[in-house]
């Protein structure tokens, strides 16, 4: 699932493959830009912005893409067979003399003027892995709607950019509260800790092929994807449910013992009522990796 760290890695791969080189092949397979020809232009850089990718091209152009749930960019050496999926899933091809970048299943792909990038990403909050990161502004954004569920606020990229379902669940566990706790009910000390912890987790994982939040050998995540398995801290079975407005299933995981706060009604797949208060809410240092 692409989150800020995954997109950062994709941007780095694309930048290494394309930046400073002239395109000898260009194929944008979306109706609006199917006739656009970028051949003969040099790629200047590839920059991540939250979960968005900005490929800046000579002549004041930017190719904006977003991976969402299933999209990906693959880089191939010249002459190598493409293997990211069937041909009908290809949305973009950018080729140089020695590398070809192929975009598969990209739900968002648009060519715009670089001066108009704000139209695509200007709504985003501070980027956890970007030069604009501002923890105070991120926290201010989150607290602007105190009645909103914490998990929903974390997923709102207008508050802070880069968090997806995995980090949402893991952050709530590390803070000792459920994702359904109203943001305004988050204790002040934990609220102050939230932006710092979020950045620490994403920075720790941006260079790693396997995402780790626990710092424990052979146990990568505390709760995400661990429904019905024992909590790594208290051994209580981890619960799962969906969170959001119902327009898209957003899997959410929590420990009913270690995390305090509201939980979803049974019809959403979770346990109704209020979770037990945690016995403590510290965590192993996520910067400590043993494998």
Question: What would you say about this model in short?
Answer:
This protein has 291 residues and is α+β, with helices and mostly antiparallel strands. The protein contains six helices and twelve strands.
Question: What structural class do the secondary elements suggest?
Answer: alpha+beta
What is the CATH class name of the largest domain?
Mainly Alpha
User: Which percent range describes the beta-strand content?
Assistant: 15-25%
Order of helices and strands: HEEEEEEEEHHHHHEEEE
CATH architecture grouping of the largest domain: Orthogonal Bundle
Domain FPG-type: 222-260
Domain Formamidopyrimidine-DNA glycosylase catalytic: 2-103
InterPro entries: DNA_glyclase_Znf_dom_DNA_BS, FPG_cat, FPG_N, H2TH_FPG, Nei2_N, Ribosomal_uS13-like_H2TH, Znf_DNA_glyclase/AP_lyase
Protein name: DNA-(apurinic or apyrimidinic site) lyase
């Amino acid at each position: 699932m692409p989150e800020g760290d995954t997109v950062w890695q994709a941007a780095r791969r694309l930048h290494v493959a394309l930046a400073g080189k002239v395109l000898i092949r260009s194929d944008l397979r979306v109706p609006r830009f199917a006739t656009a020809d970028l051949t003969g232009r040099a790629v200047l850089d590839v920059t991540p912005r939250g979960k968005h990718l900005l490929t800046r091209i000579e002549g004041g152009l930017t190719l904006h893409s977003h991976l969402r749930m299933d999209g990906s960019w693959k880089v191939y050496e010249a002459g190598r067979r493409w293997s990211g999926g069937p041909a009908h899933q290809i949305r973009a091809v950018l080729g140089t003399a020695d590398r070809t970048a192929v975009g598969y299943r990209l739900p968002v792909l648009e060519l715009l003027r670089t001066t108009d990038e704000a139209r695509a990403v200007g709504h985003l909050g501070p980027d956890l892995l970007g030069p604009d990161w501002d923890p105070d502004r991120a926290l201010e954004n989150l607290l602007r709607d105190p009645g909103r569920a914490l998990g929903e606020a974390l997923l709102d990229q207008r508050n802070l950019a880069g968090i997806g379902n995995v980090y949402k669940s893991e952050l709530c566990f590390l803070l000792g509260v459920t994702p359904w706790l109203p943001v305004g009910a988050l204790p002040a000390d934990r609220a102050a800790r939230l932006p710092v912890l979020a950045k620490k987790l994403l920075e720790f994982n941006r260079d790693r092929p396997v995402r780790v939040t626990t710092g424990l050998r052979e146990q990568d995540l505390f709760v995400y994807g661990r429904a019905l398995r024992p909590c790594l801290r208290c051994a209580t079975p981890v619960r799962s449910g969906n969170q959001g407005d119902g327009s898209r299933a957003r899997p959410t995981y929590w420990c009913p013992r270690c995390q305090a706060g509201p939980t979803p009604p049974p019809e959403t797949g979770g346990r109704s009522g209020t979770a037990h208060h945690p016995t403590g809410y510290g965590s192993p240092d996520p910067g400590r990796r043993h494998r």
